[in-house]
Design goal:
The longest helix is centred in the first third of the chain and has 32 residues, at 35-66. The N and C termini lie far apart (69 Å). With 732 residues, this protein is mainly alpha-helical. It is globular, with a radius of gyration of 30 Å. Helix 3 (73-90) packs parallel to helix 5. It contains 30 helices and 4 strands. Among the domains are: 31-295, ABC transporter involved in vitamin B12 uptake, BtuC; 390-614, no CATH class.
Length: 732
């Protein structure tokens, strides 16, 4: 398997090199290449590669020693960089002291805390839960940074020893900061390699991730080992964030996106090979530096030079060898038998959702804490944003929840749907073209499914993330794709059944109706043959293949269905956004939030998409309360829930991997008159959990003389305690 992985990486490298040569010929700037300019570009590339190598080293160390791929590595670097700025710049601490406090004290403490409080509970969790929890930590850390330091305020972190001090290279100067970064990155990679392969603690780290119980029997202390791993990973993330901050500035989104480059470097090393990960980071740094220096992609592809890392990640992951079919295994997260929703129950539920939307938006429900009048423009804007996100989130239910195919690219499919609609409907906004959008997005989903069908687990998550990032950097910014970007034009309002939905409440109710149709369609689809097939390959691909299920074709179909739903939802998302911005409207971080909330709700349940309306609706309720001028504590509470709600809800999956909707449904279903099965199930569970009463233990039941003698005989005291006259009466 290792040989296969290395062979695939070599093939991906050759293909990427060939593509780079062809691209260079087509996009050459015509600039003269001199030895001095080539040298300067090369050392810039090596410096960038060294920075990304630190992140990649931390990812590989944590994954190799704990089995958890830490999506929060970049956020740890962001938080550490802001803390370093606070100590060094804002409070005037010496740079060495501030660096020591952040990297050697704060970062390992953060890593140990994450491991002790959260990560140890994920050992038996599914991969979806593990990934979602680390993404939730990323979102929470970025939210904390935004609250503490007001991240939109410009800040700069000074270079170590200044930018003007360094080694003279003739046409330019190599600052000491960049030289230190390069040396430190190589030293860290070598020392981590030595630690993992040549020391006792390194052997224990690798042993614990392979078999925690067996390692403990041989003298290892699994909790100490895992905490050490997370401490080291956090220290490397903090050091990388601090050292890269002088180059990029203290912008949380920019600093966090650097970790995607580290993902590509780690994948280059098959997530476990430190030397190959460092080589991959250096290669990406050199390619990015020389691409920016010598190639001109024109104004239509102004972000193309930033797509080097996601493209390499895509090449490497796609070139991996075929994954073996997985068999099912007993685990704590296995679901119990679930009762399928009946068609008429789904119809009633969707009708209730529509009625509640009409009542809320019309101000018919008076809760006594704010003016129950009809929603204003600000509240309706939040509601429309909420419903558009909910529609996109529903596309993940069959793909992740039923088929188990992790997807971080729902907005990539949504953006493609908006592009198709804009090309066919134009400024007319004819809503009937939405059906064509669904049909044309399905082939894109099937195309993505072809390489995805060969992958599983983490590599599948990385592939979809690379696909989403490449789409947002190359495809969406092209003026032919989204010509309304930067022109002031608005995305056309949808016209359907002779009605133009240009007022906010009407458009909101239209999306609620589409949401209900989506949910009802999923209810019916889950009961169908395809729905059962998707859940079968999620439980065990090997067993499904043995029973005659075409695994690859089944994955292609579920990707096509998910892409079709996301494409249709993308039309509504673009309409809500108005003048679509490819960077903001289809950003990868928004996609993360969508996946997070659906997973927290219960990604296998169609109604999980409704959770995506909570955060924007909290904004709307907060605005309503603020306008009323009272209940300030509720305004503050809603603001906290808006900021930290998604991350905190996902952390709840540590204790409840099934999601919130599942538990809410279990609590609500017994009160429904026709759910006798739910009431019987709850009664059986309560009877099983009930403590036996004293009488049931036999304490108050009188013993017969024969039973007393038998007990005394077993205790060996028969001759000492039995009276000469014997036991004339029973005693207790």
């Amino acid at each position: 398997m290792i040989f296969g992985v290395r062979h695939s990486v070599v093939v991906a490298t050759l293909l990427a090199t060939l593509g780079a040569v062809v691209l260079a010929v087509l996009t050459w700037k015509g600039s003269q290449v001199t030895s001095e300019s080539f040298l300067v570009t090369t050392y810039i590339g090596l410096f960038l590669g060294a920075l990304w190598a630190m992140y990649a080293t931390g990812l590989v160390v944590v994954y190799t020693t704990t089995g958890v791929f830490n999506f929060a590595q970049g956020a740890i670097g962001v938080f550490s960089a802001f803390l370093y700025w606070e100590l060094h710049v804002n409070r005037g601490w010496h740079s060495i002291l501030a660096l020591f406090v952040v990297v050697c004290l704060f970062a390992p403490a953060l890593g140990v805390t994450l491991d002790a409080v959260i990560m140890r509970r994920l050992r038996t969790a599914s991969l979806v839960v593990q990934l979602m929890v680390t993404v939730a930590i990323m979102v929470l850390l970025l939210s904390v940074v935004g609250d503490i330091w007001e991240a939109d305020t410009p800040r700069r972190v000074p270079y170590l020893f200044g930018i003007n001090n360094g080694i003279d290279l003739g046409p330019s100067q190599l600052p000491w900061h960049r030289l230190i970064v390069f040396v430190v990155a190589i030293a860290i990679a070598v020392s981590m390699r030595f630690l993992l392969r040549r020391t006792r603690i390194g052997t224990a780290m690798r042993a614990v991730v392979d078999n925690r119980e067996l390692a403990a029997l041989n003298g290892a202390r699994p909790n100490v080992v895992s905490s050490t791993s997370w401490a080291l990973g956090s220290m490397l993330g903090a050091l990388g964030g601090i050292l890269i901050a002088p180059e990029l500035g203290l912008d949380p989104a920019t600093l966090n996106n650097v970790v995607i480059i580290a993902f590509a470097a780690a994948a280059f090393g098959a997530l476990r090979n430190l030397p190959m990960a460092v080589i991959g980071a250096m290669l990406i740094g050199l390619l990015r530096a020389h691409t920016g220096a010598w190639l001109d992609f024109g104004p239509d592809f102004r972000f193309a030079h930033l797509a080097v890392a996601p493209l390499i990640l895509l090449f490497v992951v796609v070139a991996l060898p075929q994954a073996r079919l997985e068999v099912g295994r007993l685990a704590h997260h296995l679901r119990r038998h679930e009762r399928y929703t009946k068609w008429w129950e789904g119809l009633i539920g969707c009708g209730v959702v529509i009625l509640l939307a009409v009542a809320f938006s019309g101000g018919w429900l008076d809760f006594g804490i704010w003016d129950p009048g009809a929603w204003g423009s600000r509240e309706l804007n939040s509601a429309n944003e909420a419903m558009a996100l909910a529609l996109i989130g529903l596309s993940l239910v069959p793909l992740i929840g039923w088929a188990g195919q992790i997807n971080f690219a729902p907005l990539a499919f949504a953006g493609f749907g908006a592009f198709v609609y804009l090309k066919f409907a134009g400024d007319s906004g004819n809503g009937y073209w939405i059906l064509l959008v669904g049909l044309l997005c399905a082939p894109l989903g099937a195309l993505v499914a072809l390489p995805a069908a060969r992958l599983r687990g983490l590599y599948l998550a990385l592939m979809t993330m690379a696909f989403a990032q490449a789409m947002s950097l190359i495809f969406f910014p092209h003026p032919w794709v989204m010509p309304i970007i930067g022109t002031g034009r608005q995305f056309p309002h949808i016209e359907l059944f002779g009605v133009t939905f240009d007022d906010r409440r009407g458009f909101f109710l239209l999306m609620v109706c589409v949401f209900a149709i989506f949910v009802y369609g999923l209810v019916l689809l889950r009961r169908s043959r395809y729905g059962r097939r998707w859940m079968a390959i999620n439980d065990s691909q090997a067993a499904a293949a043995t029973l005659g299920v075409p695994v690859v074709w089944t994955k292609v179909v579920v990707y096509a269905v998910s892409a079709s739903m996301a494409g249709i939802a993308g039309v509504f998302w673009a309409t809500v956004s108005g003048n679509v911005d490819s960077v903001q409207g289809f950003d990868l971080l928004i996609g993360f939030n969508i996946v997070l909330l659906v997973a927290a709700a219960g990604v296998s349940i169609p109604m999980a998409g409704i959770f995506l309306i909570f955060i924007p609706l909290f904004k709307g309720f907060g605005l309503r309360l603020e306008d009323a001028g009272n209940v300030d504590f509720l305004v503050t509470l809603l603001d906290i829930m808006t900021t930290y709600g998604p991350g905190l809800m996902v952390l709840g999956m540590v204790f409840n991997p099934r999601g919130a909707i599942f538990e809410m449904g279990r609590g609500f279903s017994p009160i429904l008159p026709w759910r006798r099965d739910a009431r019987a199930e709850i009664a059986a569970e309560n009877a099983q959990k009930r403590e036996p009463e004293i009488g049931e233990l036999g304490i108050d039941r009188p013993f017969t003389p024969e039973e007393v003698i038998a007990i005394d005989r077993r205790l060996g005291i028969l001759d000492e305690v039995v009276p000469k006259e014997g036991y004339g009466t029973a005693r207790s």
